[in-house]
Amino acid sequence: MSYRLYYWTGIQGRGEFVRLCVEDAGAVYTDVARVEGDDVMDAFIAGEHAGALPFAPPFLASGRLVIAQVANILHYLGPRHALVPESESARLYAHQLELTIADLVAEVHDVHHPVASGLYYEDQRNEATKRAKDFREERTPKFLGYFEKAVERGGGKHPLRAHSYVDLSLLQVMAGLHYAFPKAMAKQTLPLLRDLARRVADRPNVAAYLASERRLPFNTNGIFRHYPELDE
Amino acid sequence: MSYRLYYWTGIQGRGEFVRLCVEDAGAVYTDVARVEGDDVMDAFIAGEHAGALPFAPPFLASGRLVIAQVANILHYLGPRHALVPESESARLYAHQLELTIADLVAEVHDVHHPVASGLYYEDQRNEATKRAKDFREERTPKFLGYFEKAVERGGGKHPLRAHSYVDLSLLQVMAGLHYAFPKAMAKQTLPLLRDLARRVADRPNVAAYLASERRLPFNTNGIFRHYPELDE
């Protein structure tokens, strides 16, 4: 099975959660826009392809299927690459955790875009300063404390007692938050999540990916952005 | 099968998307907090129950399963009550649409809470005024235009060519947006979505529910809130 992933060039963004999954799985995939340009996605968004209508990138083409929404894509890929346990209860729980990661990612975005996603950060910096304070002091501890507890509940190594796509996404969350909010993150006590992130980053396929040119650096066009003034 | 739904008392909120599903299905369920009080949810959030750890309400108990995140709950309920087509492609698409509805709902919340979900609306009214303008002028047409196109693509009656839980959620979105932003919604041309909402509201179980005391009125504690100053 070969996949075609559609996501904006130039940023990790939400596409990165899918990339980490297919890279760890050793799956064959094409990061289509990086080959053909961002315009290749227009026809999908305009409804000119068969199958599901995506609202926005990322979306994944797998045979005749078109699948959008990160958590939905991972819910599809997980069973196909042994990246989620087999039981119904575990798959529902994995998906629930991934959806909570998606909620966190949306809040990370809104830290630098609290007023309008279509305006520049510089045009909403005052509001962003206020939202960043709440994010650092209330939301980050709440979300990360939840995931820390989930890892503990899973036995201390993984929320699902075995490696899964959720672990890959938690690596990305930890890496992104450390890039965006280094000072705020230094204050968080998260031994299990930090250990998980290290172990996931050391998986051979993940390590090879992170060292490759396919892994773009974090930057201030993506979702996780480092603006020093938002990091207290 | 009898379900136990856990959600805050006093508001429709995110729990309403689950209620509409179980009501339309004619399923037996208990809206637990309305019987036992909101405190009944604390032990789940604290991790004192077996099964999945919820981040926040709503969550559904079904036998030994605990399932959180609205779209995940509907993805579980849909096949059990013939509220989603049988094919994998249709189920992925239904879930993708539901996740996009969840994204819209999160943005609706942030219109009145653009700075901090833990502060009162009155403490972030200036920022809310700005965000509301963007929501009315950019986000509402973008999201609803997408769902209108999805219904058209499904043949004009349903995005999935047959009644599904997505239709029930679209009814709630349309009702909520009309309550919160009556002036802005009056300007939207959405013939297929409006027709869908009317048809769904007329389904016997839905109509009976909407006329019952179980259906709380919209209010300014929920997600869809009517503040006239935010409706231009």
Describe the model:
2 copies of one chain form a homodimer. Chain A is an alpha+beta fold and 232 residues long. Chain A has a domain at 88-203: Glutathione S-transferase Yfyf (Class Pi), Chain A, domain 2 (Up-down Bundle), CATH 1.20.1050.10. In chain A, 53% of the residues lie in helices and 7% in strands. Chain A has helices spanning 15-25, 32-36, 42-45, 70-80, 88-112, 125-153, 165-180, 182-186, 191-201, 204-210, and strands at 2-6, 28-31, 59-62, 65-68. The first copy, chain A, has a 4-stranded mixed β-sheet with strand order 2-1-3-4. Chain A is globular and about 45 Å long. The termini of chain A are far apart. The mean pLDDT of chain A is 97. Chain A binds chain B through residues 47, 51-55, 64-65, 67-69, 71-72, 75-76, 88-89, 92-93, 95-96, 99-100, 102-103, 106, 110, 114-119, 124, 127, 130-131, 134, 138-139, 143, 146, 149-150, 153, and chain B through 47, 51-55, 64-65, 67-69, 71-72, 75-76, 88-89, 92-93, 95-96, 99-100, 102-103, 106, 110, 114-119, 124, 127, 130-131, 134, 138-139, 143, 146, 149-150, 153.
Strand-helix topology:
2 copies of one chain form a homodimer.
Chain A: E1 2-6, H1 15-25, E2 28-31, H2 32-36, H3 42-45, E3 59-62, E4 65-68, H4 70-80, H5 88-112, H6 125-153, H7 165-180, H8 182-186, H9 191-201, H10 204-210
Parallel strand pairs in A: 1-2
Antiparallel strand pairs in A: 1-3, 3-4
Helix pairs in contact in A: 1-4, 1-7, 1-10, 4-5, 5-6, 5-7, 7-9
Instruction: Report, as a whole number of angstroms, the end-to-end distance of chain A.
Output: 46 Å
Assigned CATH class of the domain at 88-203 in chain A: Mainly Alpha
Largest interface: A-B, 45 and 45 residues
Based on CA atoms alone, the radius of gyration of chain A comes out at: 17 Å
CATH topology of the domain at 88-203 in chain A: Glutathione S-transferase Yfyf (Class Pi), Chain A, domain 2
Helices of chain A, by number, come to 10
**Which secondary-structure class do the elements of chain A indicate?**
alpha+beta
Strand content of chain A is: 5-15%
Q: So what's the overall shape of chain A?
A: globular
